[in-house]
């Protein structure tokens, strides 16, 4: 197995860990958000990409999700931990807490490339269970290493952004039963399923969105993010070795996804499928 980490808002580097090398990976879908770093902790190597690019210059709708996931797959990644900043839609999920969703609600607007299967290749995967529960168990086993509250299970609703919600929208999302709100985990999580990669999110709660009668500025959100960053780095120091030691395996949902006849596939399409379905 090989592990990949996708860093979200505030997590632009993992400078507490040893860097082995920095890689420029080419994909048929364009360039990833950043160079992919090979890092090491306790002799366990893994790959890291920053979702918004170095310096946070890529907006959620402009992220090349397909290139990020394909590049990690090309490097042999079998498991991904996503680090993401979110707002809370529930009183008990407080700013500063860590939240591990097990479901997603896609409320984006169709601006994002959300599938590897297009342009003459038809494939269907189930995203009924987009989160690897085996990875979540590994997170549970090391949660006591970090001084913050953890919440397991619930829905992450993904909006287009980059604006935050209106009050009416926030109340609507709460009526869905969603627990947190973010802007990046769809289509990222669904693409991981298409690529046969086990995926789990560690969501860093920054605020109560706008449903709660508490004004919250970008500066306040950023302050909570900065506080969470040191906690997530501490979590990863313990989580990465644990994942490798657990040797979790996941059933790949993409094994029988492609329905297009092989005789209709171009050489380039087959090369892409060989990597995705390997």
UniProtKB/TrEMBL annotation:
List of residues binding substrate: 183, 207-209
Residues annotated for phosphate binding in this entry: 9, 51-52, 84-85, 184
Enzyme Commission number(s) of this protein: 2.4.2.1
Swiss-Prot/TrEMBL catalytic activity: a purine D-ribonucleoside + phosphate = a purine nucleobase + alpha-D-ribose 1-phosphate
GO molecular function: S-methyl-5-thioadenosine phosphorylase activity
PROSITE patterns: PNP_MTAP_2
Residue(s) at site: Important for substrate specificity: 165, 218
Similarity comment text for this entry: Belongs to the PNP/MTAP phosphorylase family. MTAP subfamily.
Note: Although this enzyme belongs to the family of MTA phosphorylases based on sequence homology, it lacks several conserved amino acids in the substrate binding pocket that confer specificity towards MTA.
Entry function: Purine nucleoside phosphorylase involved in purine salvage.
Subunit note: Homohexamer. Dimer of a homotrimer.
Listed name of the protein: Purine nucleoside phosphorylase
Originating organism: Halobacteriovorax vibrionivorans
């Amino acid at each position: 197995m090989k592990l990949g980490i996708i860093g979200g808002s505030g997590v632009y580097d993992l400078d507490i860990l040893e860097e082995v090398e920095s890689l420029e990976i080419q994909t048929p879908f364009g360039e990833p958000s950043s160079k992919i770093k090979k890092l090491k902790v306790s002799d366990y190597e893994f790959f890291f990409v920053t979702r918004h690019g170095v310096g946070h210059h890529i907006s959620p709708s402009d992220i090349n999700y397909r290139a990020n996931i394909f590049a990690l797959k090309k490097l042999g990644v079998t498991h991904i931990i996503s680090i993401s900043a979110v707002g809370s839609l529930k009183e008990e999920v407080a700013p500063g807490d860590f939240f591990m969703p097990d479901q997603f609600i896609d409320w984006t607007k169709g601006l994002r490339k959300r599938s590897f299967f297009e342009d003459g290749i038809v494939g269907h995967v189930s995203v009924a269970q987009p989160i690897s529960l085996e990875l979540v168990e590994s997170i549970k086993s090391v949660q006591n290493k970090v001084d913050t509250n953890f919440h397991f299970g619930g829905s992450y609703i993904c909006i287009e952004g980059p604006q935050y919600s209106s009050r009416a929208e926030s109340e609507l999302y709460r009526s869905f039963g969603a627990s947190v709100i973010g802007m990046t985990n769809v289509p990222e999580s669904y693409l991981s399923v298409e690529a046969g990669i086990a995926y789990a999110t560690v969501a860093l709660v920054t605020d109560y969105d706008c449903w709660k009668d508490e004004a919250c500025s970008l500066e306040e959100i950023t302050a909570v993010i900065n506080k969470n960053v040191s906690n997530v780095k501490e979590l990863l120091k313990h989580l990465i070795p644990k994942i490798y030691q657990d040797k979790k395996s996941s059933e790949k949902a993409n094994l029988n996804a492609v329905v297009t006849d092989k005789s209709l596939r171009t050489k380039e399409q087959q090369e892409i499928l060989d990597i995705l379905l390997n």
